[in-house]
Amino acid sequence: MALLGAPSSSSSSRATATHRYDVFINFRGEDTRYNFISHLHSALCRKGIDTFVDYGIQKGDEIWNGLVEAIRESKLFLVIFSQNYASSKWCLKELVEIMECRNKNENNVIVIPVFYKIDPKTVRYQTGSYSTAFDKHGKRSSDSKHVQQWRNALFEASTLSGFHCDDRREEAKLIEEIVETILPKVRKNCYRDEHKSPFICNSNYASVKSSLRLKLEKVHVIGIWGMAGIGKTTIATALFNECSSEYEGRCFLTFSEGQGVNHVCARILSELLNEDLRVDNIRVIHSRIIRKLKHMKVFIVLDDVTNSQQILTKLIQMFHDWLSVGSRIILATRDRNVLTSGGVEEIHEVKEMDFEDSLELFSYYAFNDSQPKEGYYQLSTRVVADYAQGVPLALTILGSFLKTKGEREWDSALRKLRKYPNADIHQVLRLSYDALDDDEKNILFHVAGFFIGNEMEEVIRRLNSFGFFADIGIRNLLDKSLISVNSYNDEKFIKMHALIKEMCWKISCEEQSKNGGQQTRLWSTEEVCNTLQDERDIHGVESMIADMNQITIDSRLIFVALRKMPKLRLLALRGNINPDIGWNGELPEDFQLPNDLRYIGWDKCPLKFVPSICWPKQLVELSFHGSDVEKLWDAVQDVPSLEKLDLRRCKRLKECPNLEGAPNLKLVTFFGCESLQDVHPSILSHPKIEEINVSYCTSLKRLCSDNCPPSLRGLWATGCSNLEEFSISMKADNSKLLELCLSSTALREVPSTIMNLKNIGCYGFHIIYALEKLPPNLARAILLMDPIKYEDDPYIILSRIFPSPPFLCLKQLIFFECQSLSKLPDDIHVLQSLQVLEVESCPVITTLPESIKNLQQLMDIYIYDCEMLQYIPPLPPSVISFCAVNCKSLETVSSSLTSEPSRNDIASFKFHNCTKLDDHAYIHVLKDLKSRVELVASDGAYNNNANTFFYYLPTEESMLTNDWFPRYYHPEGSSFILAVPPDDKISPCLVLCMLLSNYQSWKFINSMLFGCRCYISERGSNERECIAASGVRTSLTSNIRSMFGAKMVSDQYHMALWYDSKFSKRIMEAIKERNRGNTSGNPILIFDLHAKTVNNEEVWIKGCGVHWMHVDVKDEGEEEEVSPDVVIDGYRSHDLENIQRTGERVDNVYCCALDILNWFQRSLVSCLGLSSGVEIHPPSSPTTAFISTAATASSSVIPAAAASTTRTNPAEHEDLEAPQVDTWERTKNVSTVSDTAKMEPPLGKADQERFTVEVVDQVNEVLACLNHPLEEISGSSELRDRLINATCSLGSKISEETNSALVAFIEEVLVVYPSDQSIQALEDHDRQLEKYEGTAIEQEENTRSQAVENKNADLISKVDKIYASDESSALVESVNQATRDLEQAERRVQRLRQRQEDLKLQLRIYFR
Fold it and tell me: Where is each TIR domain found (predicted)?
């Protein structure tokens, strides 16, 4: 696959360029053939470089055609300038052809001059022997017409970077340097895939390449691991193609089954040494081979490494012992265990592609384009999001399959995929399944059918109860990427890709067919109904799941069928029975459960009473979540294996079952059983009980027991509003107790039975005075809620209990659903050990106390759903994490968010859905980020750490045009482009920004993933290199304790800002390395940003940007910021990429002109009171709109100006002429860079230069006029004429709104200060406009010229209303009237002057 940027539809059909020769040497034979050239040619051949040298062939037409063909089939040219080079017209003709190939830039050719015993100036300016040679050429009539062409080629080639050989330099060393320089250039791309298959250079690729650590001087082995079809081989191939050319030895080997270590070793050595070697024993290798390897830096890829731990271990040891430092080895496998057991140092897991990249890859295969064609977006989304889900294999196969098919065929194919998986995808995915043993296959099937989304430890426990070896089985499934996990706080939940689940379903169907139709698993309600209705063999069924509300058969068939399933181990039913089929609400009299059942679940079961039956002795878990059951059983039931009883939200349950017959019981929950009045004492008598949850059992009155087993880890009785008695004897040896929550109960005193406890995880209670009686060190965290009955104002109670011993040593304090707590007491500062403060669902709190800044140990603050909170005071410098969510009234944040940032490596400040934050709060938050970044930059030792700072807050897009993102904010899309700045304008202080759209998710969003990839490329090139990647995983709601989950709704844009020191440093280092090695070209940085939830829910990015801080710490401690100079500001990222793919380019001069227009509009927006929704209208083709009404500059201006590289310091000029000079000098500097560009810009060079000169002249003309006093503008016909002319010319290049505002401003000036001179000036202007309009119509009648005509005509009509040429007397009278009303117009004048001063101030700020 191609390394980057799959071709667009316009370029994909273009034939791939092929090179017959690596190097073509252009030289004068009589000077160098038998000395320098012969040695150089030999050296190149020794390195395997295919070189064309014209050895003494006779010149002629046929030979010349052969030379031209050789030139066009070469990728690099060495031009050897010698003393008599110019005397050979054949050398000169070859040089012209070479430079034409380079200037076309079709094949990315490279030209390197070598000045062999001749001064480069002699060649460049054609003096000395070159002058003599050209004099002779000029005298020959056949050559004279080519002389200027030869001179130009000589001049252009001699200005390129190359080598100089004089009498003081050894030729052998020079040849060695030339070969070393050429070798990586000609080897680069030598392994490129000729088919140019699409390849998305995403975060997986960037991460793997980064882990290669190419500059590390050691043998480095890395592993690439992931599910089948995820792109491991593709990534490894791309890295091999890109990097291996820099190494002396290369090998790409795909493992095959049955190969021994000797065979594999022989293949690797043969590839590396380019010899046919045989290895009989890896321990006996000839010393000659080892010596060669020890002096070779090699790049090896071993693909599809499976079940070969011993082979891999021996190979890795061989790599470390035999290979030279700097060698790199990549191992790709589906089984992580192969890598870990083999001793691989660094393992990278290849993740699924995100939606944006997936859609792009799929579109390349389906439409030969980077996006779906019109009418196919929704269908493509179904493939990408619903089926493939980020697996490249599925995207490529389905894209190719659906290509050229119509919409109806697409829809039919996608519906078919739901029932019949694609065979090609299934075949690849099955490779991992086939490597499993029988036990692991059964575990995989159970996970696919029943346990996706369940907590991993719970799944392992259940599977172990089924008789499987689940601990090692689940581990192996994870290693083989057949399952994965999602983490939420400290828990892990099992996840499985939809394609893997589909594969399991298909394999299960295949096994059923092989077994004569006998089924082992019934995975769906439809399957259950069909099986029972058709009376199929169900004797071997081991697991069954069904939604009782969706069954279409008599429910009695299901209950009777259970007796015929003796092997059934898992029974999972859901919902009430479908009322359409009829049911009397009772089980059959002969109802019987299979004896081997381990798990029984019937959520929302309609039974009110479970009849007396013989419960299975092997039963491990019984669940009736949300059911109507009132009583579980009467007598004691013998369930010796029962470990978990789940009766959550059984609101009608009145009686707790006797559980004396369950000696292995570990967990029981009655959460939300509102009718439950008592808990059977047998529950607390079990020695293995770990968790008891009776929260929100509102009828429960007492919870008592004389015994508390040491195994108890948690007891929750929150919200038991009638609980008046709690007497469970707890001792100090209850060391496993993590949580004890008795909040919002009817208890009026702290239970005496808990006074002996120490260092429990969390103690929950309501706010009462009795809390001060708690023993010291009772708990590391205390959770406080509202009491049922209030003793006093909670604020007063807290003020009294805070100084008590249990609170003074507290680490974490939580306020949860305190409805009456209006504020926290000021003496919270006494809690000097406090590290975490949480305030959730406290609706009347308006502010945090000012004294909070004195909590020197406080690190984390979380505030959720505090609807009345309005103000955040200064926080202590120790705070590194602050999160406010859904605080809809929060307006103000202290000007010193943290009084002094601490030297921590991480910091996070988030304000989600705090929609009333004012502008000052926004600035104060940014100030904190700025301070932290400056601290990193100014402290050398601190700067060596891996620092990550993340800030998240609501904002409007207009806020992003402040000082932080003045020209680097891209208002649309998730990517943008910057020109690479010079070394003195870069620093490791890069802050990324993205504007997230309003979104809502009804799911509990635990974490968000924010990321960015940075690429470096040449403008006009189809290739780019990923130089850095950054990712931030941050929680927006991680500590929310609401048992109903959090509904995250965002109704405003949110901005995410983050600083990643490693990311910034890698970019800085890559730029400096690029600048050292390449002084030509037009390098650019491409930033691609992305955001999504941990559940892969994409969040749309409205815009993105970057702030590049350059911090210079002076002796006085002052700091100043400098930003990169050139930004491609007139084009969106994807527009530029399209230009790159089609071979067009954007010239720097032209971009600078667009940049000037952008800046000019922003200045007008600020001074004339416009909205920010202005846009540039750059012309797309040369039309009359380019011709300025002022003097049109000739096309020679830019090249002449480009020769100057001296930049005027704008600070030396105090008046507005300084910006005029600086703007022009800025344009000259940028155009100097553009001289190296050889691809034609969209408008053509001459038209582009003319447009640029016009923009600069017209903008400066407007600014120069506005710099004069208003009286002078109105009184001077010359100034007014200049102002109107420049405004008319700019009218075709700026937006309608901006142009109208500028015209209105001029009208106001003329109305306030009319004069006799203005009449003549306007009449002259009318004549100029008429002349211009006539010329424009004659030159070109198109839409652009018509637009210019309309705008000029509009301006004329507006001015004519004031000064009609046929009403002179009326005009004189209006002048007199204006004079008389001068005092009344004074306020208007003052307003205009203020606007003028604002504009001048903006100019000075811009140019400084």
Answer: 19-186
